[in-house]
Amino acid sequence: MNGCRRAAIRWAGRRDFGRPGKSIGLEERGHHPAARAVAACRGGNPMLAFDLYRHWETDLRPFTVNALRRMTPEQLAWKPPGWHSSAFELAEHMALCEWVWIYRNALKVVPWEARWESGRFPDLDSLLQYWDEIHRVTVQWLKDTPISQLGRKLPMPYPDMPWATMDWVIYHVMEHEIHHRGQIFMLMRMQGIDPPEI
User: Fold this and answer.
1) Which CATH code for domain 48-190?
2) Is the whole model's pTM more than 0.90, yes or no?
3) How far is the C-alpha of 132 from the C-alpha of 152, rounded, in Å?
4) Where is the DinB-like domain (predicted)?
5) Domain coordinates in residue numbering, the chain
6) Taking a C-beta distance cutoff of 8 angstroms, is the pair 51, 33 a contact?
C-alpha cells in the first residue's frame, strides 16, 4: 500500500463524517473524499489537501458571500435587542478566524505578535476584498500540500495549545464559518430577507 493510500485511509478513519475510528469501504463509496484520494493515487498523482477541502472554495465561501451581498448596509448593521453581533460584525469575525488560524498562526504570513485591527473596514466590499486576499493564500496552501501532510504538527503561539495539525486548523476555520453563517442566515430571516438556498 503506497503512502498516499495510507494517508487517505488514516484521514477517512479519523474523520468519517462524525464517526471517528470507524472504517469505510473506500472503493464502494467513490463520492467520499478519501475514495477520491485512493483513485488519485492509483493514477500516480498524489492527492492534495485542496482535493479534500475544495467545497470550501466551490460551495461554502460562495454561499457566505452571496448571503452577505443580499443585505443593504443598514441590514448588515442591524442586530436584535440582546444579540451580540450584527451580520457585518459576524462576517468580520469569520475573516478574523481565517486570518488568525491560517494566515498568522499556521503560515506566519504576518508574525504571531500581529493583531487584527477591528473596525477598520468601512463597508462590505472592503471587508470581502481583504477576506478574499486571505483566502487566496489559504487556497494556495491547500493546493501546495499533499494529503499526507494533513497530520503534520504546526507550531501555535499558545501555551495551552503549542501545536495543531494542518487538518485540525482547516476543519476548525471551515466549521467556524459554517456556524456563524447560520447566525447570519438567522439575522436575515429576522429582517424578512431570504438567505441563499443550500
Assistant:
1) 1.20.120.450
2) no
3) 26
4) 65-184
5) 1-46, 48-190
6) yes
